[in-house]
TrEMBL record:
Keywords: Amino-acid biosynthesis, Cytoplasm, NADP, Oxidoreductase, Proline biosynthesis. NADP(+) binds at I6, G7, C8, G9, R10, L11. One of its GO terms (cellular component) is cytoplasm. Belongs to the pyrroline-5-carboxylate reductase family. This is Pyrroline-5-carboxylate reductase. The gene is proC. HAMAP family: P5C_reductase. It comes from the Archaea. It is found in: Cytoplasm. GO terms for biological process: L-proline biosynthetic process.
Length: 260
C-alpha cells in the first residue's frame, strides 16, 4: 500500500522513523517546511513539493498537523483524496469535523505517541460507525507497524490524548525528577540517568508483562518501616498523586475547550 504523510513535525517524523525501522518506505511526504521534507528524504522516503502531489500518489494519507491548521490542510487535498483513507493524528479534532472537511474520504482518527519512532506506541483508533471493514483494517495495519493498536470509541480516544498521547512527556518528567534526586545525593548524572531509565523499563515489564499490579510491585519493594516506605510516605505527604490527577484534569479540560 502507498501512503502519504502530510506534516512531518515531531510526531510525523517519529512515524516515519518507525515505518523505516519496519522496512516500510513507500510514503510520499510533504511539509510546508522544506527542511523537514529533506529529513524524510534522508531516511529514504519520497519528498513532495505539495500536499496534493503526495496525496495523488497514495491510497491512504496520514495527516499529522496541528489542530489549528487541519482545516487548511484538508482544503488543500480535499479534491484529490476522494475515496481514499485519511488518518488524522490531530488532537481535539473530531470525526464529525474531519468528515465535514473531507466529505468524500474515509476518515479515521488515531492517537499514537512519539514512541512510534521505536515501534512501541500504543495507538488508539476511532472511526465513524459506517466505516467499511477493509478501510479500518488498512488503518489498523499501518499503526500495527508502529506498536500496539486499540480500536476505541471517540470519547476514549479523546481521554487517551492526555494519558498515552502526552504520556511519554510525563514519564520523562518523572525520570528527570529521579535523576535530579540521584544527583542531589552524589551520583553522577550519566549513572543516574542509566539507573533511572533501566529501572523504569524493568518496572514497566513487571507491570505490563509479568502481570503484577501496581500495588504488588509497591508491596514487593516497600517493606513496612523500611527505606522505600519512607520515600513513598514522603511522596504521599506531598500529595503527589493528587497533583498528578489535577495535572491530567487540567490538560483534559484544555482539550475539551479547544475541541472542534
Ligand atoms: N507530538 C506528539 O507527541 C503528538 C502525539 C499525539 C498526537 N499529536 C498530534 O499530531 C499532530 C502533529 O503534532 P506535532 O507535535 O508533530 O506537531 P508539529 O511538530 O508542529 O508538526 C506539524 C508539522 O506540520 C507542518 N504543517 C503545517 N501546516 C501544514 C500544511 N498545510 N501542510 C503540510 N504541513 C503543514 C508544520 O510546519 P510549521 O511548523 O512550519 O507550521 C509542522 O512541521 C497534532 O495535531 C498533535 O495534536 C502529537
Amino acid at each position: 500500500m502507498k501512503l502519504a504523510l502530510i506534516g512531518c513535525g515531531r510526531l510525523g517524523f517519529s512515524i516515519l522513523q518507525g515505518l523505516s525501522r519496519a522496512g516500510f518506505l513507500d510514503v510520499s511526504v510533504f511539509d510546508v517546511d522544506k527542511s523537514k521534507v529533506d529529513k524524510a528524504k534522508s531516511l529514504g522516503f519520497k519528498p513532495c513539493q505539495s500536499s496534493r502531489e503526495a496525496v495523488e500518489q497514495a491510497e491512504a494519507v496520514i495527516l499529522s498537523v496541528k489542530p489549528a491548521v487541519v482545516e487548511q490542510a484538508c482544503q488543500e487535498i480535499r479534491d484529490c483524496c476522494i475515496d481514499k483513507l485519511l488518518i488524522s493524528t490531530a488532537a481535539a479534532t473530531t470525526l464529525s469535523k474531519l468528515k465535514s472537511l473531507m466529505p468524500q474520504s474515509y476518515v479515521v482518527r488515531v492517537m499514537p505517541n512519539i514512541a512510534v519512532s521505536q515501534n512501541s506506541s500504543i495507538t488508539l483508533l476511532a472511526h465513524p460507525p459506517d466505516a467499511p471493514e477493509e478501510v479500518l483494517e488498512k488503518a489498523v495495519n499501518i499503526f500495527k507497524l508502529l506498536g500496539e493498536v486499540l480500536v476505541v470509541d471517540e470519547e476514549d480516544l479523546e481521554r487517551a490524548t492526555v494519558i498515552s498521547g502526552s504520556g511519554p512527556a510525563y514519564i520523562a518528567y518523572f525520570t528527570e525528577a529521579l535523576v535530579k534526586a540521584a544527583v542531589s545525593i552524589g551520583l553522577n548524572e550519566q549513572l543516574a540517568l542509566k539507573l533511572s531509565t533501566l529501572t523504569l523499563s524493568g518496572a514497566s515489564k513487571l507491570l505490563a508483562e509479568a502481570g503484577m499490579s501496581t500495588r504488588e510491585v509497591i508491596d514487593a519493594v516497600a517493606t513496612p518501616g523500611g527505606l522505600t516506605a519512607k520515600a513513598l510516605e514522603t511522596l504521599d505527604s506531598l500529595k503527589l498523586k493528587e497533583g498528578f490527577t489535577q495535572a491530567v484534569l487540567e490538560a483534559y479540560k484544555k482539550l475539551l475547550s479547544i475541541r472542534q
